[in-house]
Target: Redox-sensing transcriptional repressor Rex
Amino acid sequence: MKEQAIPKATVKRLPLYYRYLRILNTAGKTKVSSTELSEAIQVDSATIRRDFSYFGELGKRGYGYDVEDLMNFFGKILNDDQLTNVALVGVGNLGSALLKFKFHQSNSIRVSCAFDIKEDIVGRIVDGIPVYPMDSMVEQIKLQHIEIAILTIPAQEAQPVVDKLVDAGIKGILNFTAARLSAPDNVIIQSVDLTNELQTLIYFLHHNYEDNK
Model:
């Protein structure tokens, strides 16, 4: 099995599966069927079985899936057994909220440093995270061997910052700006546009309403 053969939509559902399996395991449940998973996470059972099939035989016909084994399997795929340090660039309203975010209580993801230009925040510890000046960003990222950055700065400032992040060795960027960013092929940029998501939601609400009138 080649990792790149797995569809992006499947990859995006893996954390959802993993999170629910952790809940089941904590509750002491030992096995689960695709139908039970479907009812809990609102993904149809055929999609779940197809997603799981990309990783080989994970369950047994007539038995279902072993909760602990499946949880550990997806945890390993998602690198949840290893600590991943993340850099946050931009400690504005959204950035400050992300510093408080516990990443669903994951023990494997940690924002270890943040960067900003505001003098009143640089040099402080915010929610346990040190905030450094932007001009020390490349040095600190290299020093801490960080490969992932979250970008929450004004769109017009984003591309020059991305160029510096690439120079620092960053391999993955979660982009909360509205800018269309470019980077070398070995750097993955995943964009989260909250306005687009809300407009899409509004469309579906009105579309479904019109269809059901």
Q: What stands out?
A: The CA atoms of residues 87 and 113 lie 5 Å apart. The chain has a mean pLDDT of 87.
